[in-house]
Write a structure and sequence with these properties.
mainly beta, Immunoglobulin-like, three-stranded antiparallel β-sheet, 8 strands
Length: 98
């Protein structure tokens, strides 16, 4: 068994997805995802294994949380997220089966 991982670039994109494949002849056992930095401004919306006759692995998606507030005429509007940089790392545990 061994762990493989892949990471997105550190950018201010609002959504990121990454998929990690097990090598040929191996199957996914487990996996997961991590957001960096973990400030609570981003949430993992999907973290799932996949298995087909051709390949297997783990895929995850994360999205920035958004908030909007209406403002009074003399106040500044709130519109988040705004230029928050982060990345998504996806891990997969693979093993030879059979």
């Amino acid at each position: 068994m061994h762990i493989l991982s892949d990471v997105t670039d550190v950018t201010d994109e609002n959504q990121k997805t990454r998929t990690v494949f097990c090598p040929s002849g191996e199957r996914v056992i487990s996996g997961g995802a991590r957001i960096t930095p973990s400030t609570g401004r981003v949430t993992i919306t999907s973290s799932v294994p996949f298995l087909s006759s051709e390949s297997s692995g783990w895929s995850a998606t994360a999205n920035e949380l958004s908030a909007q507030a209406e403002s009074k005429p003399d106040a500044t509007a709130v519109n988040e997220p705004d230029e928050f940089t982060w990345n998504l790392t996806v891990y997969v545990l693979c093993a030879k089966i059979g």
